[in-house]
Amino acid sequence: MPSQGPGGINWFPLLVLAVVAIGLLHYFTPGHLHFYHDTLRRLTYFPIVLGALWFGLRGGLILAGLSSLAFIPHLWHFFGQGLETYLSELTEIALYLATGLVVGVIADRERRLRDRYRRLSEKLKRSYQRLHRETTQLLAAETQLAAAQRLSALGQLSASLAHEIKNPLSSIRGTAEIFLDEFPPGHPRREFVEILLKETARLNSTVDKVLGYSRGRPAANEEPLEPLDRLLARLAALVANPLRKKRVNYRTHGLEQAADLAVPANPLAQVLLNLLLNAIDAVPEGGEISLTVESQGQGWRVLVADNGPGVAEADREKIFTAFYTAKAEGTGLGLLISRKIVESLGGTLSVGDRPGGGAVFTVSLPDQPFPPVFTESKP
């Protein structure tokens, strides 16, 4: 039997007191005052019904029994008024018990139904939550499958393009070598021809890697190392024209310590060039871009910062996923490939806020030796 009624209050003792009070009024009210006795007799049903509703069958029967006991002294008023009158008053006790029984049974049944519906509601809620989770997982799986299919198609297309690019690359390299012979050492244009040759070699190496992966025969091969300051100078020459077109203020910091760092030239050049070009696209006309080299513990890092719109915190992981881009003509693959390259070298690529507004991309790498980079197996 519940210990509390509506409002969390223990009403049972109050109902018992009401039964006792009605019984005393019955007993001390003179027998000839029939109106008062009839009123008290009907009033007795209230604590019985309330007890049955609030406390079930047990509560109804207990209060009906107490009401019957409280009603017995009242019967002495009718003991000498004939058998029919006495039995009429005695029948009231049976009605009290019947009322407690019937209302208690109905209340218990209603309570069981309510508990059953509550459990069913909780079960449905859990089922809905599980269905919602499974639906979310299914949608995520469909998205991943679609991305995988696009990546597969892109891989096949990349292999075809790589194969077609090799012949023009050979022609470009041959032409650059002719130009190199035309400009002796010390000529102001010789530096640009050397950059052209190095970038052609880097592009050819990238094409070889794509072909190697497409044939399923990648082989470990260490990339050539180059002092970081020399690599950064080469990249500065490559982006000089787009920097000049947007009148971007490009500054470098910490290059004095970059001379002592030998880095994998081709993969790191690809990463940093991608970050610089993204920064140029992000900054407004006359914007600012800075590149900083810092040592940190057992490694070092390169920070590329710009005063563009920055990257929202909710998008800082999305930008490293396939096909996610904010550019109208972007592929959504540059940052994904850049992160994969940095991770293959044992480092990390992350993005954060630039003090004063904008974004800063941080390439963190360990000291040498670097892990081997996979390139095409030579037959």
What does this structure look like?
- The protein folds into 2 domains: 6-126, no CATH class; 219-374, Histidine kinase-like ATPase, C-terminal domain (Heat Shock Protein 90, 2-Layer Sandwich).
- Residues 372-379 have low confidence and may be disordered.
- The strands form 3 sheets. A 5-stranded mixed β-sheet has the order 3-5-6-8-7. Strands 1-9 form a two-stranded antiparallel sheet. It has a two-stranded antiparallel sheet with strand order 2-4.
- The protein is rod-shaped and about 140 Å long.
- The chain has helices at 12-28, 34-43, 45-75, 83-182, 190-215, 228-238, 240-245, 255-258, 265-282, 334-344, and strands spanning 218-221, 225-227, 249-253, 262-264, 288-296, 299-306, 348-353, 359-366, 373-376.
- It contains 10 helices and 9 strands.
- The two termini are 87 Å apart.
- The protein is 62% helix and 13% strand.
- It is α+β, with helices and mostly antiparallel strands.
- Helix 1 (12-28) packs parallel to helix 3, helix 3 (45-75) runs antiparallel to helix 4 (83-182) and helix 6 crosses helix 9.
Question: Topology, please?
Answer:
Elements: H1 12-28, H2 34-43, H3 45-75, H4 83-182, H5 190-215, E1 218-221, E2 225-227, H6 228-238, H7 240-245, E3 249-253, H8 255-258, E4 262-264, H9 265-282, E5 288-296, E6 299-306, H10 334-344, E7 348-353, E8 359-366, E9 373-376
Parallel strand pairs: 3-5
Antiparallel strand pairs: 1-9, 2-4, 5-6, 6-8, 7-8
Helix pairs in contact: 1-2, 1-3, 3-4, 4-5, 6-9, 9-10
